[in-house]
Design goal:
single chain, 219 residues, alpha/beta, three-stranded antiparallel β-sheet, 39% helix
Length: 219
Amino acid sequence: MPPRLRHIDAGSCIMVDENERLTMIPYLEADHLKNLLVTGYRAHELGIYNNKHQGIPYIRKAIAARLIPLLEEGLEWVITPGQYGVDLWACEAALALKPQYPHLKCSIITAYSQQADQWNEEKKAYFDQLVQQVDYYGSVSNGPYSGKWQFVARDDLLFRKTEGILLVYDEDAGEASPRFVQDRALQKQARDGYMYLRIGAEEIQAIAEEEQLDAFGGC
């Protein structure tokens, strides 16, 4: 059973292990956060199957809103695994912020090469376009898919090379792939002070409602 966290204030929390022993764990300060992993739902887990879905802009805006204060504090790299969904929308959000924050760089690191080969033409063209725009693109394995070990190796690298994570995941919506990422991030937070940030459905919904109010003149 993983350790439980009890939040004390913005700067620290208490880790409670299986023997109910308490350990104070300081959170990583934002000014030490240079490399941020951004990931979350795959598109199909949200019922999204193309880039025309009306919910995508709100997810991008929610990500951008979280990135801006981190950029003000010195964030340099946004790194994603490049899966179709939150990963690529995060790349779009980061690329859109580059004119305002020219020091920001964006990276896609996939589990294996030719990841998009099995996607339809629209998704593949979208992925290829983003690959051309990001500052770094690479794969943990240079070959095609051969097993789960490639995803394990990718995640090991991403967690090792970043100081924090921004995860788009609604804990109340049921089991989904981000749950496993969350579990690992919280364990790393308890052990190393890894920064854990999450965007849930309420945050995205608030942005959508604000946009709709603005569209009607704030009425």
